[in-house]
Amino acid sequence: MAFPDRRTANIVLTALLLAAVVALLYFARRVLLLFVLAILLAYLIDPVARFLQRHSLLFKDLRKPAILEVYLVTLLFIAFAGHAVGPGLVGPSGLPFTKVPGWIEGLSTGEIATEIGEKYGWSEAAELRFKAFLVRHREGIERLVQNAEQVTSNALIVLVIVPILALFFLADGSQIADAVIRIASTESNQQAVRAVADELNAMLRRYIRAKVILGAWSFAFYSAVLLLLRFPHAIGFGAIGGVLEFIPVAGWMITAATIVGIGVLTHGHWIWMAVFLGIWRMAMDYLISPRVVGKNLEIHPLLVLFAVMAGGEIGGIVGVYLSIPLVVVIRVVWHQCIASAARATAEWMPADKSL
User: For 183-216, what is each residue's pLDDT tens digit?
Assistant: First the structure.
């Protein structure tokens, strides 16, 4: 029996190792997602930390105190915002959040149709049709509520874990990057791997810049429409919507559910708000976001749209989260491979002509 030569064995082992790594990443995709979100959060905070590091009065040119200052300022901002908005939301003139469980029960049983019909002057036939519709879709409504509770609990876990992980990346990011480069490279190709890491670093900074632009657009839209429809705390909820824009899919879903829920609870113009949210989401997903992200990353908007849709089809919400960063990595590695091949060809051609 003939055994394969050494070159064939190396190819087979490399393919098996690559398949094992891909399988490991797939099964650990949720943990990987937390680390990706932490890295992106670190890129978001890094410019502020660098600014404080250069201009701090007490800890100038010290990295870790500047990072702690960023976190302290963020916590103080959240505390002040909660103190300013919270009493208005739970007070006598605020939103009746204590009635939310009863409202959800009325939604699933259809009893809320009577309350809405009396508020907006519906006919008895219209109330009965709406109540019958809610009763027919009771199981779907209950599943939707359960999914919303699960998403909320997962979001709370992410909000706790991701900032802690981002703290490590901010404090020791350069050392972590150097260690990864040493592990992933040999002495002969270390320079090429470092070039890939540098370009990837620049592309991720551009990606975060694009997300900041999209968050600003969302903040402006939500605030303007909420003010137009006279929703309570329009600027505060607009800011929440802008921040949640950093979270693909789940972010805008939480924002839309919160705003529409507030409209229903306060008897605001929630139907018009739902229409505006639907139009805005279509414009954001199919027009604004592909163009902004594509322009900053030098990727065609159609490729951005395809990556998000393919990521959602392959990996669900996790695939959507990782689609654009993965496209960035593939693009950087591909460009470096093309550049390396061009350099090798340029070095080989003079020798070939001398023959």
Answer: 877 777 778 778 888 888 888 888 888 889 999 9
Q: What is the pLDDT of residue 69?
A: 79
Are 311 and 319 in contact by the 8 Å Cβ rule? The answer is yes
Judge whether 151 and 244 are in contact, CB under 8 Å: no
* Alpha-carbon span 354 to 344, nearest angstrom: 16
- Tell whether the torsion through CA atoms of 176, 182, 183 and 185 is positive or negative: positive
Distance CA 92, CA 86 (A): 12
Percent of the chain with pLDDT over 90: 3
Give the domain ranges of the chain: 29-95+137-184, 187-343
Q: Which residues, other chains included, contact 74 with Cβ-Cβ below 8 Å and sequence gap of 6+?
A: none
Tokens of 160: 């706790």
Tokens matching residue 63: 């990295």
Mean pLDDT for the chain overall: 76
Distance between CA 240 and CA 246 in Å, rounded?
A: 11
Q: What is the DSSP letter of 5?
A: -
| Count, residues in the chain | 355
Q: Quick check: 196 and 333 in contact, CB under 8 A?
A: yes
Q: Residue 1: what pLDDT?
A: 45
Buried b (16+ CB within 10 A) or exposed e, 216-231: ebbbebbbebbeebeb
The radius of gyration computed from the CA coordinates of the chain, to the nearest angstrom, equals: 26
